[in-house]
Amino acid sequence: MSIADELYRATCLDILENGIWDTDREVRPRWDDGSPAHTIKKFGVVNRYDLREEFPIMTLRRTAFKSCIDELLWIWQKKSNNVNDLASHVWDSWTDETGSIGKAYGYQLGIKYHFPEGDFDQVDRVLYDLKHNPASRRILTSLYNFADLSEMHLYPCAYSMTFNVSGNTLNAILNQRSQDMLAANNWNVCQYAVLLHMMAKVSGLEAGELVHVIADCHIYDRHVPLVEKLLKNESYPAPKFTMDDITDFYAFTPESFHLENYRYSEFREKFPVAV
Q1: This model's pTM is above 0.70
Q2: What mean pLDDT do residues 24-53 have?
Q3: How far is CA 253 from CA 69, 105, 113, 215, in A?
Q4: First vs last Cα of the chain: how many Å apart?
Q5: Do 91 and 114 contact (CB within 8 A), yes or no?
Q6: 18, 28, 84, 99 - which has most CB atoms within 10 Å?
Q7: What is the gyration radius of the CA atoms in the chain, in angstroms?
Q8: Torsion region of 217: left, alpha or beta (phi above 0 gives left; psi -120 to 50 gives alpha)
Q9: DSSP designation for 25
Q10: Are 73 and 66 in contact, with CB atoms under 8 Å apart?
Q11: How far, in Å, CA of 179 to CA of 192, rounded?
Q12: Which residues are catalytic?
């Protein structure tokens, strides 16, 4: 069984067995038919993935590896907020007629700020500090810009990354305010594991631990039977992860990353996404 599967099973079982329902409250998310999308949740979930041991992709079902990387690069490389720059349709529910998601995600990473060393956006500042100030405890990004929240079509869920160099190892903490365990959990884990590998590679470091901190970790009411079914699937060993020998952060493409012998259980059930 892969470590990602072990942590996913443990988290979901904890939510189902010990979680708190919000059915006694008004909630913002809705299903397509207009019904409120209630959840059962746990607060303050922390999962740790050591990327030196294995790549944290689920095998209980297939995670669309190339698509999740494409979205990651859309945000962190292209710094885009328009779905016309994105190959998948995961953001279609939050776009306007131009394809924009407002001043969210990639837009925030592309804003330039003035520093003594020059003008940097958040991504380039991280890349600069990893090479020139690796002992710094200030290497982080944040998408939660209060000044722009009213112009975001969706507040950022995975909203900050904190990078920390220990010896020759790059570790990171991903902070997430909200996590839909069925629709998005392993998608996000794979994305930010890849990002950590990218940042380490171009900085001459080794990728170490990804710590995933989730404030509101939940399963939607209509997803509960699907999650229960998913947890019964067979698990396989994690595949081998490799990446091309690239030293320019902006030269990576979805085809730069490879999984060898990725085996997974079939899970063809369609499920609704609350918006």
Answers
A1: yes
A2: 97
A3: 8, 19, 26, 31
A4: 33
A5: no
A6: 99
A7: 19
A8: beta
A9: S
A10: no
A11: 14
A12: 157
